[in-house]
Amino acid sequence: MSKSIIAEGKTTTEAISNGLKMLNTSKENVNIKVLEEHDKRSFFSILSPRVVKIEMSLKENVDENRKHVEKEVKISESELNLSKEKIDKFLDEFVKNFEDLKYDTSIDVINGFLKVNINGKDSKILIGYRGEVLNAFQLILNSVSNRASKEKTRIILNISDYREKREKSLEELADKISKTVIRTGKAITLEPMMAYERKIIHNRLQSSNKVKTYSIGEEPYRKVVISKK
User: What CA–CA distances, in Å, run from 135 to 65, 195, 196, 229?
Assistant: First the structure.
């Protein structure tokens, strides 16, 4: 069954726009039904705003496509080992170019992907502001790993336990913002984040019975919105 939501707005266009944000999709992927389109103004409340209420649901094929995309892609052991060799060689050459920097590297195979760890007193230079350098370096490692490969191996890069520290920071941010949303009743849009960072926010608040989260925008400027239920 397709997911269905009720959205409101001052106009039909605004109601549809709000609904698309809630479902995190585009107009061609949904069915739309106008439920109410009238003024709420009365003799006693002539300044009440006009409200349009619509019902919006995802088309069946969209649900199936999402399920297909979310399926875990299994990588063969031979391909994982080949990718590991590529990354090992690349990191060896990379370290040689920075003789003054002292850090160690290691690669572990975890649940079908490669986790690359870089540690040492000089390794933090590879993190950058809010992980910008780290994320760019991770893209490079993924490119190196998957060049001329039949299967795509996923590389996760962690430097000086930055991922764990960032996760804790984002969870604390989610808790803080959710309290503000509950108190004020107003939705708050966070700054653009990487997909894995947005997932941390979603996971942190998914069990809340007072707030909900959804993402808006296009990569790499996609943002999480926290709003009251």
Answer: 28, 11, 11, 33
